[in-house]
Structure formats: C-alpha cells, structure tokens
Amino acid sequence: MLRTVSLACSSANVLSKTTKPVWALASAARFSDKKGDNLETELQKDLKKLNEILKSGGINETEVTNKIETPLEIAQKQEVDKNFMNFRKQAEQEAFKRSSIFNWKTVLGTFAVGGSCLAALFYIKKIRLEEREKHRKQTAGKARIGGEWELVNTEGKLEGSEQLRGNWLLMYFGFTNCPDICPDEIEKMVKVVEIIESKKDATPIVPVFISVDPERDSVARVKEYCSEFSDKLRGFTGTQDQVNKVAKTFRVYHSQGPRTSKQEDDYIVDHTVIMYLIGNFLSFSYKNQFFLDPDGQFHDYYGQNRKAEEIANVIEMKVLKYQAQHRKSLLNLF
Amino acid sequence: MTKEESSLKNERRKCYEAEKSCRAERKNFDGNCPTSWVNHFIRKYQFERYKKTLAEQGVNIADQNALSD
C-alpha cells in the first residue's frame, strides 16, 4: 500500500512538472499559427524539446521509481521483524539472548556443579562424623572392658558385682593349678589391698580371684586356695559358660593347654595375666559422697611388671581423681 | 702318672655321683610336681637361659621385664 501510494505521488509530480510547459507550448502554438514558418519551426523545436523532456522525464520517472523502490524493498524485508525500530525491546531481547542464565546448558552445568559441591559437602560431613565416632569410640574404649557379672562364690552361692557394690575391686583371673605366675600375682594383689587398707580413711577395696579353669576348680578347691592367701580374698568359680561369660566381659583370654599322658586332668591353662581395677558403684552413697557409676566399670589395669607399692599408689590416685570428678559432676547436677 | 690317673678316675667318680644325685633330685622333682608343671618349669628355665645367652651375645631384647627375675 505504502509503496503504490508513494509511487503514484511521485509520478503525479513528474507529470505536473512536465505537462505545464506542454500546455503553454500548445496554446502558444495555437496563437502563433498565423505568424508563419518561423513560428512553425519554433513550435517544432519546442515539440522536439517537449518530446525530449517527455522522454527524459520518462527516464527520470523510472529512475525515481527505482530509487524509491530500493529502500522500500529494504523496508519490506525488515518489516518481517515486528520489533523493527523498537530499540528498547530489541535491546532487551539482545540482553536476553546474551544472558546465559536461562540457557539449558547453563542450567545443566549449574546442576552438575551444585550437585558435585553438595556431594563433596556430604562426603566431608560423613568423614567428620566418622572421625568423631572413632574418637568417641576411642574414649569410650575404656568402658568396653568390664560390666556386671555373677559367679559362684566360695560358699557355693551366686554372687557378683551387685553384691559387691560399694567397693573398688581388684580382679585377677587364674586357676588353682597354676604353677608360678598366679600365686605370685595373687600375693601381690593381697599386698596391694593391705597397703591401701593400712591407711587412714581407707578406700573400700576387695581382692577378687576368678577361676578360668572351672573343670578342676571346684567351689571347695577355690575356697581352700583363696583362704591360704588371705581371708580377704574372694574366690569365684562356676560352670564353663558362666566363667566364659565373665572372661569375655573383662576381655580375658584363657586357653586350656595339652593334657599330659600320665594324668587326664593334668594341664596348664594359658591366660591373661592382668589385674583389673574395677569401680563397682551404682547410685551408692559412701561417707556422704554419691557415686553414679555402673557396676563393673573398668578403671585401670596392672601387669606382671608392676610392684605392689606402685599399684597401691596408682590406685589411691585413681580413687581420689574419681571422687573429685564425681563430686564435681554432682555439684553440677544440683 | 698314677696320681693323674687317680685324679681322672676321681673326676669320673664325682660325675657319676653328681649324676646319681641329679637323678634323685629329678625323681624328687617329678614326684612332687605334676607333669605339666615339670614341663612348664623346664621350658621356662630353657627359655630364660636362651634369652640370657642372646642378651650376652648383644641381641637387644626389648622387653626388660622378660630379663629381670
């Protein structure tokens, strides 16, 4: 539409420009008809000019139309874009195209990077948790030795941590047919208890012997064996299962050796040579002090290389430390 | 010569006597100890002697408790 209108306008202009002299010439020619050949020649000249002008005008006209058509064509081509000349919208669109935030590739990339970051975070957290757990286990490893136990005492009655509550226990696992180590260790244990008990405000401590050879160690035999060391020494035995259970609670290894050919019940039992210091308190009050410690709690151990005096000193230190800690924790409670 | 012979003879005699008393001691040992204990003590003695010879040869025995006694 625009094209045709403009084309019509331009052609009309050209025509009006060129036709004016044509009319003038024509009227002049009418008046100068009578004046002779001179006029005729002049008219012819004018006609020639007119023709020339017409011709040239025609050419001009086509040239003009051509000139007009070319930008129109360009306009027509650009007209397909609805946002032609709408620079604000165009700029926005350009910005939108340029901004890669909404690109699916970047979305995927973001997810990948974010995912891997999250995975790394979770991994680190997991490692930290594991470390913490490991550390907790290490510190709690102390508590994994010991616990409540029950065996048959020298009177043939069931007795254990519950009945001995309120005392510190020095526990030793052995067997009455033990050639050398057990008697030495039991003697040492009795000596330690005697040293501690000889002092003022003595800590209540009980030496305990537990047999790891229930096959040969009858109640009577254990009774006789213990009484020969000290009347303070409490001896325990039981069935194989009972003994195994207690040995497991205190992580004590024991293994029956080979029987000699001469006698069926002649053998040596290999076992852990360790003296345990066990706390045996459960909400127990002693000398206005309250202890909140489960029965059979492991506190310390003493090997064959430690001397009686040394062990006695260490135990006294341990007991003092324990009492101080529990007084503090009780103060925090109230 | 006769003196030497007699001294050699004397040495032999001494040894025989010692062997005899050793036998008696061993019999005493066996009679008073259970077989398992006898085996245990002999093994222990041998092990202690072995450790001692090793220590004398300059072998470093890390466990000092094992050497004491």
Automatic annotation (TrEMBL), chain A:
Record key words, sorted: Copper, Disulfide bond, Metal-binding
GO biological processes: mitochondrial respiratory chain complex IV assembly
InterPro entries attached to this UniProt entry: SCO1/SenC, Thioredoxin-like_sf
Superkingdom: Eukaryota
Gene3D superfamilies per record: Glutaredoxin
One GO CC term, this protein: mitochondrion
An example molecular function term from Gene Ontology annotations: metal ion binding
Binding site residues for Cu cation: 178, 182, 271
Keyword Disulfide bond among record annotations: yes
Disulfide bonds: 178-182
Family classification: Belongs to the SCO1/2 family.
Protein name as annotated: Uncharacterized protein
Organism: Caenorhabditis brenneri (Nematode worm)
UniProtKB/TrEMBL annotation, chain B:
Name of a matching Pfam family: COX6B
UniProt cross-references to InterPro entries, sorted A to Z: COA6, COX6B-like
Subcellular location: Mitochondrion
Alphabetically ordered keywords of this record: Disulfide bond, Mitochondrion
GO cellular component: mitochondrion
GO BP, sorted A to Z: mitochondrial ATP synthesis coupled electron transport; respiratory chain complex IV assembly
Stated name of the protein: Uncharacterized protein
Species this chain originates from: Caenorhabditis brenneri (Nematode worm)
